[in-house]
Amino acid sequence: MQRILTINGGSSSIKFAVFEEVGPERVLEGAIERIGFSDASLWMKGQGSDVFRQIVVPDHGTAVAVLTDSIDCGALAAVGHRVVHGGQRYSKPHLITEKMIDDLQNLGPFDPEHLPEELMLIDAFHRKFPDQKQVACFDTAFHRDLPRVATLLPIPRRFDEKGIRRYGFHGLSYEFLMQELVRLGDTAATSGRVILAHLGNGASLSAVYRGKPLDTSMSFTPASGLMMSTRTGELDPGVAAYLMQSEKLTIEQFSHLVNHESGLLGVSGTSSDMRDLLMRETNDLRAFEAVELFCYQVKKYIGAYAAALGGLDVLVFSGGIGENSAVIRARICEGLAFLGIEIDEKCNAENEPVISGGRVVVRVVHTDEELMIAKSVFSMLESKIDRDNENDNT
Ligand code: ADP
Questions:
Q1: Residue 276 Cα: closest atom of ligand 1
Q2: In this structure, are strands 3-9 and 78-83 parallel, antiparallel, or unpaired?
């Protein structure tokens, strides 16, 4: 039976899983966390192993070596990578070639927060297993066909031609959530008006009309839209100009500020973790304000997308916060009865799959980005990847 490995790499972590073809079924999963820090660790579960150990991983190259030493890579039919940005050229899953790596390297400045590390992982695998098939699955794919008006940024035209537009992210998660709605027999997935809220460390919303994405909160990069654990989300460009001038920030310092020092962490001054903030919000005004701002922003997006959709049939909560925090879901939905959104307190408190008590069906769905990567890779293996790439003119 064929097996594949999925890789979901971030700036300081790599989540991985091994899938077997039928299902596909996850037979092993794990993560290398805190890469580059003194307390880096590896955990892994499945196939009789339950491992947790501290490791020394100064960089992503070493992390790949740890990973490939820990699992039987020789038996893999392919490795599937989540790649955050595909730019204008790439959207559907694609066999990784040298040409593609060149293209993605040129795309690096589009998303310096993610692409360089992802390319490093791809390269490290290639060096160790030069004959291994590697497949890129792009987080930008789901929103590829957004209506033109949703993709345009109000800046001079010449930039649109250079690819500076809304791409949207969290596409693997949204694809999974839509498939899940279909599996659950929810007709809104194909013929209704749906808002998907992926609320994790990275957070975004997507509006889907009759099965087609209509708008999404992340834009040219995943730093836009909602405030997140450490990212600002939308920010008045005047603040950028003012800070760069008054604080004499370099591009790198500014980028660090908006990507790593802001959001829940920036407003609370103490933590980027929603659980921490909820625990201390009664005695800590700054933690309270951070949580309040997050819920308020999500609520505003729901209102905006209900307007864009001309009403609403289904609202889906997902991601670590959306799946686990009844308090946050309730606060977001407070006052939205006029849209038909009402929460059943008991179902919400118990994290039931359906938590609504009003006209709009409000669901809690556990997302699975790795499974989406696995499905794409297996279907590419079946359809002879090489020929697919030749025909890909995206
Ligand atoms: P990532 O985007 O890194 O995959 P996750 O989807 O795992 O992140 O979401 C992490 C966020 O979910 C953190 O802010 C964490 O505090 C929050 N979270 C997880 N469980 C709960 C919970 N029970 N209550 C509130 N927040 C939670």
A1: 16
A2: parallel
* Banded pLDDT at 248 (limits 50, 70, 90): very high
Which helix (H) or strand (E) segment holds residue 177: the answer is helix 171-183
Catalytic residue chosen out of the listed positions 50, 131, 139, 388: 139
What is the model's pLDDT at position 41?
Answer: 96
Is 39 an active-site residue? no
SS3 365: coil
> Is 268 a pocket residue for ligand 1 (Cβ < 6 Å)?
no
Looking only at the bridges linking them, the beta strands covering 203-209 and 193-199 are: antiparallel
Query: Among candidates 160, 74, 169, which has minimal Cα distance to 118?
Result: 169
* Pocket flag, ligand 1, residue 323 (CB < 6 Å): no
Q: Using a 6 Å cutoff on CB, does residue 322 contact ligand 1?
A: no
Confidence band, pLDDT 50/70/90 cuts, at residue 385: low
Query: What residue's CA is closest to ligand 1, atom 13?
Result: 273
Distance (Å, rounded) from C-alpha 337 to C-alpha 352? 20
Q: Whose CA is nearest to atom 19 of ligand 1?
A: 320
Domains and CATH numbers, the chain: 3-138+382-389 (3.30.420.40), 185-359 (3.30.420.40)
Asked whether the predicted pLDDT for residue 202 surpasses 90, the reply is yes
Closest approach atom of ligand 1 to CA 277: 16
Residue from 114, 228, 274 to probe ligand 1 pocket by mutation (most atoms less than 8 Å from CB): 274
Contacts by residues 52-57 (CB-CB < 8 Å, ≥ 24 positions apart) = 57/32
Q: Which atom of ligand 1 lies closest to the CA of 202?
A: 2
295 CA to centre of ligand 1 in angstroms: 14
Model pLDDT for residues 62-94, shown as the tens digit of each residue: 998 999 888 887 789 999 999 999 999 999 999
For the entire predicted model, the pTM comes to: 0.93
pLDDT at 389: 54
